UniProtKB/TrEMBL annotation:
Binds 2 magnesium ions per tetramer. Pfam families: Phe_tRNA-synt_N (PF02912), tRNA-synt_2d (PF01409). This is Phenylalanine--tRNA ligase alpha subunit. Its EC number is 6.1.1.20. GO terms for biological process: phenylalanyl-tRNA aminoacylation. The gene is pheS. GO terms for cellular component: cytoplasm. PROSITE patterns: AA_TRNA_LIGASE_II (PS50862). Mg(2+) binds at residue 254. Tetramer of two alpha and two beta subunits. Keywords: Aminoacyl-tRNA synthetase, ATP-binding, Coiled coil, Cytoplasm, Ligase, Magnesium, Metal-binding, Nucleotide-binding, Protein biosynthesis. Residues 61-89 form a coiled coil. The keyword tRNA processing does not apply. Its cofactor is Mg(2+). It comes from Mobilisporobacter senegalensis.
Amino acid sequence: MKEKLQSIMEEALAQINGAENLEQLNDIKVAFLGKKGELTSVLKSMKDVAPEDRPVVGQLVNDARAAIEEKLEEKKNALGKKAREEQIKRETIDVTLPAKKPMVGHRHPNTIALDEVERIFIGMGYEVVEGPEVEYDYYNFEALNIPANHPAKDEQDTFYVNSNILLRTQTSPVQVRVMEQGHLPIRMIAPGRVFRSDEVDATHSPSFHQIEGLVIDKNITFSDLKGTLAEFAKQLFGENTKVKFRPHHFPFTEPSAEVDVTCFKCGGDGCRFCKGSGWIEILGCGMVHPKVLEMSGIDPKVYSGFAFGMGLERIALLKYEIDDMRLLYENDTRFLKQF
């Protein structure tokens, strides 16, 4: 029995020394000390040992178990230390490598241009007013002197929800809503998204943004309009910028005009950017039509006013010299992070 126990212990210690990982070590522990292990089987055979020899054999079994358990713990610690060292080597952080930079967003070119326009007009005493994008036909057309049979309704290619409700084609309805409130005088701009059934190309989109302005007060003249837009152009495009007014027609203003500014690339000499003319068109404007004032409950004999409107995308394209409107909406970070 003593020789058998010695053989079992030597075999166990040899296997423990040869174990290469914790999984193998656990298998060895089960093989020798488990319920069906070799040392356990020796204990089960104690009934066959003479009563006077049982204390001696029991002591030998306990000594063998203690020696095996001690060696198992020692090997377990050694393998655990080795595993940690290998893990540390695998997970070593090279502090000389550049860190991963977080993706930080910033304002869109449209937003930058809008903030600049709003800053200029707020500095002149204007307020910023917003209104619904889904609008009544009355506010979008009729209250702006565009009746049902007016050709301007066809020119704008409107998205209709039903016969009375549509997606607004301009932000002018906001002006009408403010005039109806009757709180005079009025100095406001109305920025926002508008919708027209246009094909997508370098200069058109079915969804874009406008900024429209309105001033209503006593003794407002075309000179006030010219002075306001001249100052706006100087602040937006540079102190040396000049403006030119060309006669035009809008149903809701009379007289009406298109406004050009001197090319900020060539100073008016003529270049590729302004197509050799020296001028760039930026907006439309005019004196508010008396009928529009009357429909909003304002007496045109007492009050007068002017209105103007510009495309936000056009301002952004001109200011940042972008040649394709689609770039503003393609969400290409290579383009957007330039601003």
